[in-house]
Amino acid sequence: MAETSTLIILGASGDLTERLLLPGLASLLKSDRGVDVKLIGTGRSERSPKEWDDVVKTAFNGDAGSDLAKRTLASSEYIQGDPTDPEHLKKLFEAAEGDSVMYFALPPAISTKVIKALEKIDVPDGLRLALEKPFGNDEEGARDLNAELLKVIPEERIHRTDHFLGRSTVLDIIGLRFANRLFEPVWNSDNIEKVEIFYDEILGLEGRAQYYDKAGALIDMIQSHLLQILAIIAMDAPASIDAIELRSEIARVLRATWIKDGDPVTASRRGQYSAGTIDGKDVPAYADEDGVDNSRHTETLAEVEFEIKTRRWAGVPFILRSGKGMTKVRKEVLITFKPVPVLPAGLTGATSPDTLRIEISPETLELGVTTNGKGNPFSLEKSVFKTDLGKPELTPYGEVLSGIFHDDPTLSIRGDVAERCWAIVQPVIDAWQSDLVPLETYPAGSSGPADWTTSKEA
Ligand code: NDP
Fold first, then answer.
1. Residue 337 DSSP SS3
2. For a pLDDT cut of 70, what percent of the chain falls above it?
3. Which helix (DSSP H) or strand (DSSP E) does residue 8 occupy?
4. Distance 333 CA to ligand 1 centre (A)
5. Considering only Cβ atoms within 10 Å of each terminal Cβ, which end of the chain, N or C, has fewer?
6. How far, in Å, is the centroid of ligand 1 from the Cα of 400?
7. Which atom of ligand 1 is nearest to the CA of 210?
8. pLDDT at site 1
9. Cα 10 to middle of ligand 1, angstroms
10. Which candidate, 338, 301, 344, places its Cα nearest to that of 441?
């Protein structure tokens, strides 16, 4: 029988806990990865035992499914209190069994206060801390936060979570690249024209102005999740898939990643949706949404071109883009290959470049290649080989939690990388704050300003 660990969720009354964290825990406990978890939720809000029980049961979809899950449901409790109060934190540790994982499902400013409160008490041996993005507000903020955390516990027990690293298709990239003869030999600037990473959503603000209006698409998506995907696409082969080797390769490639030509004005574009129609429903302009402060000029669509200064990638554009209020969901990595240097005379017809499309959601892989035509065999056509990669057993948060419970930080962001990701995008943040890049508008339900290169479907 696995030893019991306690998951203490700070901010248990919040959106992340209910929508992502608890369902992730449920998927983990229903799987065969063998963790025995006592669950403690906490927050300033009141929750009767019945209310908390209902929240947890909803996450399990009424189906405990395994003995481990049943035990977690039976032993779960909510302890009301302020997580920034050291006395309350002591009480939480007293209620815990086995090693504790403290998950900060809190607004970032509150997380910082909790870390300072933890510095004032004796924390239990074996404590692990799990922190969400955004990790700090800039490079210096991330460095300060790292220094504070290290006063409480050592680096190997700090989990800076990025649930995109728990997404099965992102993890699939590692197998695809390094377990096949087909891809790795052509995975370089000799053969690849460009790499695009998209995360476009139809959804608009959905009442999350308090968080999103301060972040915007650049910080919400590109600075965090999409740079991690870029690293997985661009890194060299790690010696092994573990916390030291994989994270070292990620760190190494991100140290070579820069805004294209060092010029944020030419390398970035930003937009904000105006009123429009999505799925037949009228959507108000972002600027008219509740809680939006128009003086912030928050972007709901961001596109940034990066370059990676290594022998492998010199000259290959990496274009990262994310938007809200778009006409369709587009969550994918699209790799476009260079054309062949020459075609034999007599092979005719339109040729478009080979492409590899890794769809993050739904989980599919699509290889687009040129083949002989069905009519005249020497008139070329495009053929697409598409496969469904299948639904993973664990949700991305389930995968992240599995790493935390198994004391394995392979899929969490190393401290220096958290700082580096801020340093990479800082020139863009500065240029946008100084209004050096215009804030363009696009109607909600469109594919962005028409002249953006990434607005055109490949
Ligand atoms: P919420 O804004 O929903 O806040 C979570 C909880 O924090 C609240 O329920 C509240 O609980 C507590 N809280 C708020 N203010 C204070 C305060 N002044 N002092 C003490 N506690 C406070 O956040 P989310 O759940 O949306 O997000 C949590 C973290 O996860 C954030 O860092 C966010 O960036 C990150 N994240 C969120 C995602 C999401 O989809 N929601 C996705 C990815 C990351 P109470 O009032 O009961 O104390």
1. strand
2. 98
3. strand 4-10
4. 30
5. N
6. 18
7. 2
8. 47
9. 9
10. 301
88 is catalytic: no
The DSSP call for residue 72 is H
Prediction pTM value: 0.96
Percent of the chain with pLDDT over 90: 82
Q: Which pLDDT belongs to residue 13?
A: 95
pLDDT for residue 335: 98
pLDDT tens, position by position, 5-52: 999 999 999 999 999 999 999 999 888 786 889 999 999 999 999 999
Tell how far the Cα of 444 is from the centroid of ligand 1, in angstroms. 27
- ipTM rounded to 2 decimals: 0.98
Tell me the pLDDT band of 65, cut-offs 50, 70 and 90: low
pLDDT of residue 34: 67
Helix (H) or strand (E) holding 246: helix 245-255
d(C-alpha 369, C-alpha 295), whole Å: 47
Q: Measured from the CB, is residue 44 less than 6 Å from ligand 1?
A: yes
**14 Cβ closer than 6 Å to some ligand 1 atom:** yes
Any atom of ligand 1 within 6 Å of the Cβ of 233: no
Active-site residue among 163, 225, 297, 406? 225
Residue identified by tokens 């963790």 is: 35
- Cβ of 11 below 6 Å from ligand 1: yes
CB 170 within 8 A of CB 232: yes
- Helix residue spans in 12-100 (DSSP H): 15-16, 22-30, 49-59, 67-75, 86-95
> Which of 172, 229, 194 shows the shortest CA–CA distance to 363?
172
To test the pocket of ligand 1, the residue of 9, 15, 47, 206 to mutate (highest count of ligand atoms within 8 Å of its CB) is 15
What is the residue type of 204? G
CA torsion angle 60 61 66 67 (round to 10)? 60
Helix/strand/coil (H/E/C) assignment for every residue in 93-162:
HHHCCCEEEEEECCCHHHHHHHHHHHHCCCCCCCCEEEECCCCCCCHHHHHHHHHHHHHHCCHHHEEEEC
Task: Write the residue with the smallest CA distance to atom 31 of ligand 1.
Answer: 107
Q: With 0-12 CB in 10 A as exposed, 13-18 as middle and 19+ as buried, what is 296?
A: exposed
Residues 77-119: tens digit of each pLDDT: 999 999 999 999 999 999 999 999 999 999 989 999 999 999 9
Question: Which amino acid does the sequence have at 163?
Answer: H
CA of 334 to the centre of ligand 1 (A): 33
- Of the candidates 203, 270, 124, which has an alpha carbon nearest to the alpha carbon of residue 444? 203
Locate the ligand 1 atom nearest the alpha carbon of residue 82 and give its number.
20
With CA atoms as reference, report the closest residue to 294 among 313, 274, 314: 274
Q: What is the pLDDT of residue 64?
A: 62
> Is 386 a pocket residue for ligand 1 (Cβ < 6 Å)?
no
**Atom 42 in ligand 1: residue holding the nearest Cα:** 16
Above 80 in pLDDT, residue 403?
yes
